[in-house]
Amino acid sequence: MSGNYDHIKRANDDYAASFDRGGKPIPPAKQAAVLTCMDARIMPAEALGFELGDVHVIRNAGGRASDDAIRSLVISHKLLGTKEFYVIHHTDCGMGMFDQATMETLLESSLNTATPGADGWTDPGGDDGSQEGRFIKWLTFSDAAEAVTEDVTRIRNHKLVPGRIPVYGFIYDVDTGKLAEIEAASAAGRAR
Ligand SMILES: [Zn+2]
């Protein structure tokens, strides 16, 4: 086996051997849901002071309010009782490093990992490229504050999200660990 396979099996054996936090209920104890980016430099529970069982964390590339992120948020409130939503984007997000057209072109060239450079992305090429990338909305953005405001606004205005739920917008700094509230986003997400 390669990669992290052995590591994961061994690490989990240790984890499970001393695990003593089972038996918790499904609804998050702190009644909150966090939507954030999949970026490996963010450990949401750790950064926000939550423990196992406290909050829902929904993650995708960019922490965007995609239809699927909203699906999870709606389930989070409607069936599991959360009462506040936090949308957390971050500094140095990879989603600001490409746009829709770039992604489509790279995927048409090949499925191999492309590399970023001063002149944009370079694809190594291959014989497995596909035009399927054209059918996916990659939800890229160039300004994190604008994007988080857009996402908070979309959630706020969604017909399946009740107005009583406050939706807050933040940007997390991956170099300092600090969270900065984006006033425009939180204002847009205010409960009503
Ligand atoms: Zn990101």
Automatic annotation (TrEMBL):
Keyword Zinc listed: yes
Taxonomic superkingdom: Bacteria
Listed InterPro entries: Carbonic_anhydrase, Carbonic_anhydrase_sf
GO MF, one example: zinc ion binding
Residues annotated to bind Zn(2+): 37, 39, 90, 93
Cofactor notes: Binds 1 zinc ion per subunit.
UniProt KW Zinc keyword: yes
Alphabetical keyword list: Metal-binding, Zinc
Family (UniProt): Belongs to the beta-class carbonic anhydrase family.
Protein name: Carbonic anhydrase
Organism: Marinicauda pacifica
